[in-house]
Design a protein that fits this description.
Number of strands: 8
Radius of gyration: 20 Å
Distance between the termini: 48 Å
Low-confidence stretches: 5-26, 158-165, 167-171
Amino acid sequence: MTLHRTYLLAPLLLTVWSLAPSFRHANAQPLAPLVVVMASTAGISNIDSGTLRRVFKGYPTDQGGKRLVPFNQNVGAADRVRFDNVVLGLTPDQIGRFWVDQKIRQVSQPPRTVPTVELLLRVVASLPGAISYVARAPERLPPEARAITVDGKTPSAPPTKTATNLCCSRI
């Protein structure tokens, strides 16, 4: 009798289990745009995706007469995972291996990590050349920091999964 119930319940449990992700996604809130931020006084309003990738891979990069200094969010933070995926095309495991390889080869240093988004925005606003990213609508940024375009795309542009629309990703 118990074996018979198991055979009857198994398909029902599998059906419920397979539908569970669709219930989660149906109620999920849309993600805020992932925007690249710099100080309002930086004098830089656009960056191309190749330069952005180079900066966050630790290579010395100048733009607009300023050395760009990248800052990351904490390892494992949802915004950092999205950014690394969209900009660098790497998963968290791949990022870890990338930085180990860079350290062994003494090629480049990883961006410094800032523990909170609020502190990150204060650092970006006060340090010349500082560049980072946040998942926040541009109008919600403090006046000392501003969203810059990536490849000429504004953060209000429709989101896509292409590398040319990094500032607008909602992946």
